[in-house]
Structures
1.
Amino acid sequence: MATIQKQTLREFSMPSAADSSSRLVSLDLFRGVTMAAMILVNDPGGPHPYWPLEHADWNGWTPTDLIFPFFLFIVGVSLVFSSESRLQRGDSRTALLLHALRRTVILFAIGLAINYILFLGAPSIFPGLRIPGVLQRIAVCYLLATTLYLYTSSRVRAIVVVTLLIGYCVLMSLVPVPGYGVPGRDMPFLHPDANLAAYLDRKLLTTLYEKTRDPEGLLSTLPAIGTALIGVFTGEWLRSKRSPRTLALGMLVFGAVLMVLGEIWGIWFPINKKLWTSSYVLFAAGLGLVCLSVCYWAIDIRRWRGAWTRPFLIFGRNAIAAYIIAFIFAVLTYPMHDYVFRRFFTPLGSPGFASLLFSFAFVALCLIPVWLMDRKRIFLKI
């Protein structure tokens, strides 16, 4: 079960990222910003939010499409610091793997519980229990990334990433889809329904998020593991015995390189969040590296901290609690959602602006209980 721990968090007093007992404040900040962004885009007031707050229809990307891969990237970075800290305390790799398995089961179960509640609330939309989901994909990728980190070398993990990304591209590009034919010859390449990932989802899963396919489906989980592993490489880089400025610059440069490679690959294998294409893995993880490098430089090197960072740090230190609270609030407030939006937000401006204000208000509402937990030093741990 998840446990609630009351503890004192010692903030990272400066730079040596190689000190695994330290806490990277910049990573907490990045996680918190990502969590706040997730709540913002998941809870719009009206049907017409600004385009950056919506997912791309298919190929291409918007800022919203970067939130999920940022979480997986952060998971990879974090597991390096937590694993090394426990190994230095004398824990065995087997103990760490068993702990990772336990966390995986709990995360997966929470994801299933959320899907079950959605099924009860909207049986016409979800006619059965949906197995895939955001937390479920995070759980699977976390377990596999942890296993690879504990029992393989960096070189082997690099080979795994390359194999996953190239292999997925080959499968999606060359393998005939039963009933449709060869991609790019018998039907448009990466057709929303006539692609291998969608076909396998329909064959192997009972309830799909988008009726004919699932954005957290089976085959697309393979490249998502690569996103987490790039986070693992980043965590190893941050723990290396280099100067803080070298660490920040390295993340910035390598992130930019990955973004360029993702854009180039996207010419042939388009960036697509719902299919988690290989080009999307490189581009999103690259941008995650760039964002983390900026956070690291500003927060852990220049120490630009203040009132503006506090809400994000509160979300970042208690991310799973924030995720669950946001879901609970969304369910509880759903019956009055339309009334509140029309009564209090619609008169304030255009539909897009009113929707944005509603989303900000919802983020602030979710912050209140997480802030109270933070004040009491109560953190939900799995």
2.
Amino acid sequence: MPASAAVTGTEFFGPWEQVISDRDTAIASITQMLDLATSKRTLAWRGVVKAEYPLHSSLYRHLLVPGRPTPDEEDVAKFEGHMLDRGRREWRFDNLSALELLAHLQHYGGPTRLIDVTFNPFVALWFAVEQKFAEFGIALPDDSDARLFAFDVTGREIGLDDRWGGRELPWAKDPGDGWRNKLPSIWRPPSYNERIPAQNSAFLVGGIPQVKAGDNAKNYRKAPGDGTSRGTWTSAEVRSATSVTTRMNKADRKPQARATPTFTLRIEAAAKPQLRQFLEKSFGYSAATLYPDLFGLAKHVTNGLR
């Protein structure tokens, strides 16, 4: 699908969102979703600084080329195979399982299909309102709304067992039925670095979405505002908005008992400074506590010190 026809995060997720305008609505909205989830559900959270951004992994963003069709599962798997092969043969990282090697690559900024999430909603909120900097450490203005996601990952946790902890990527040859249209799995990696425990982090791991005929009811194309249905998104449109499958649910509507919903909250740009102050004073969240390594210090010195 040409880049000109890409679906933004606002178009895809906007009809399902609830709005955060200040500290009180942030606390109320997060509490509401936790209450909807109840103790029987596990939620993983992700914050992004711009609400219009798609929900894409770093590898998916890496493979997106303007003017060309959206990448598919075969494109992502092929890149992963080359990346792991070179890492093992030329860099000699041959002592790690495939998932572990991807986790380390993710930490050092390499492109992977892993999507960072946290089990702490207020950590995710901090990432959504985090102060960003331009060249020479100049703080960028808070002129864009942000977005918060909450994924129901109940019963989808994986570990480094015989299937997921092997040398080969488990989805490379025989991903199993539904890999491309089922919801992503969740992996709590070991504490390979200081950021993992500090952020209570995990990874979403899933196939690139494919909408099968008769199975796209979860991808309704809803109109902003009134939320009326306008048909369904195509597979290419879904992939331009997200590189993992989601089942969107209104944040103020209790999901069915067997549902596995994804919720989203939009954070108004004007609320970002207040929320940063609230999170630091109430929870101690800052660049130092959430990026507690030398990479974090180096970036902070580059951005924030004069």
